[in-house]
Amino acid sequence: MTASLESVAGPDDDRVEITTEVPEYGPEGQRLLSLADGPAARAWHAVARVDGDFAGRGWAFAPQDIAGIYDMDVWPGFQRQGLGRALLRAVCGSARAAGARAAALNATPDGERLYSAEGFVRIGIGITYWHHLA
Q: Residue 44 is part of a domain; what is its CATH number?
């Protein structure tokens, strides 16, 4: 799916922030997040928290003018509360502010409903495979 970033509303939910501080990821995860830090960052990590609990996350990576949206996930106990929308708007807003003009992502059927409501359109059908480390 893809969308012009001009069509995606800006961030508007204080439960979500762009951050590199995620202690739940442990020391190794913190080192990876440091790649998304600083004024010239081309990658952004959004975290959703509800009453201090880690509730979801999302990423954007924009090496040029098209941002890739990755790893959008809201934990089951926090779904259907607007956090997915807020995460999407946060990472898209950061990419737009850095000069990206469009975003692209792969969507599950549940995700497609959210992304369509935010201005994304389907450009094809495919399968994404994930390699999970043991």
A: 3.40.630.30
